[in-house]
Amino acid sequence: MNIFMDEEDPQEPILGMPEALPEGERIIWQGRPSALALAINAFRMRWIIAYFAVMTIFRLANASTNGAGTSEMTGILVSSIVFALIAAVLVYGLSFAMSRAAVFTITDHRVIFRYGAAIRKHVNIPFSQIKGASLKRKSARIGDIALELSQPGKPPYLHLWPFARPFKYGKPQPMMRGIEHAERVSRILADAVRANAPEKVEVELGRESEPPRPNITPEPSVSAA
Known about the structure:
Blueprint: E1 4-6, E2 27-31, H1 35-42, H2 45-65, H3 70-101, E3 103-107, E4 110-115, E5 121-126, E6 130-137, E7 142-149, H4 157-160, E8 175-180, H5 182-196, E9 202-204
Parallel strand pairs: 6-9
Antiparallel strand pairs: 1-5, 2-3, 3-4, 4-5, 6-7, 7-8
Helix pairs in contact: 1-3, 2-3
């Protein structure tokens, strides 16, 4: 089974998967990234807003130094706000498209990434090729789960982006980014991996703020018997 598959017009027999599951394999979790989390953490919406804020302050200070009147100052402020909103809407729109195109799947044998709004891509990662996994919380509900592979460099960083761990260019790590209830999902992954490759994988959950509630189900989610 290939770890890396790329399709321009995929026909998915199962949501998020390029082929039907082999007999005996079952899906234990599926989910999509949060569009807002992608906009903030992958597309750096905060940095974009900060850039417009700094430029606005600079323009207002420069105009004030040159003796600009109230109407001119107001025009600068309004135009800056309008352009900042347009930029934020464009970034969120891109993030929304990326989040709707992405599906993360955990089975009892592997992890599958499906992503790409224009060209659909699939990354298939058997548990036997996972060297480690780590959870990074972004908020109380949102987090990123990065997978360290035993064969670093495949697939390449640019092909994985935005679902690649930042700054791991030489040894790219596929990352389930912007996952809701990420701690619960990390436990699902950890339990599945330990049941199939207990001697190979270390899962770093970090410090817990509170125990996960078992009745919470990420949206969207799929379970199979």
